[in-house]
Specification:
Order of helices and strands: EEEEEE
Number of strands: 6
Structural class: mainly beta
Shape: globular
Strand content: over 45%
Radius of gyration: 12 Å
Helix content: under 10%
Number of helices: 0
Distance between the termini: 12 Å
Strand order of the largest sheet: 3-2-5-6
Oligomer: single chain
């Protein structure tokens, strides 16, 4: 994945209008929680240390996870 520096943008298909978003460190600790109303979100990562994190997105229909790198 392309490293992020201060924010990430999440675009979901138009049929997803609600989602719960959590960011975990590699030890499994939840570091951030967000609720997405609509299909677009911008998440501020400026307070996160450099490293690898797991972005977990849960919608009523599906669950997604994605590795993100903060530099």
């Amino acid at each position: 994945p392309t490293p992020a520096t201060d924010k990430i943008f999440i675009h979901l298909p138009s049929n997803y209008d609600k989602a719960d978003i959590r960011i975990y460190n590699i030890n499994g600790t939840v570091l951030g929680q967000h609720t997405l109303d609509g299909n677009f979100a911008q998440i501020d990562l400026s307070n996160y240390s450099n490293g690898i994190y797991i972005l977990f997105i849960q919608t009523p229909l599906h669950t997604f996870s994605k590795r993100i790198i903060v530099q």
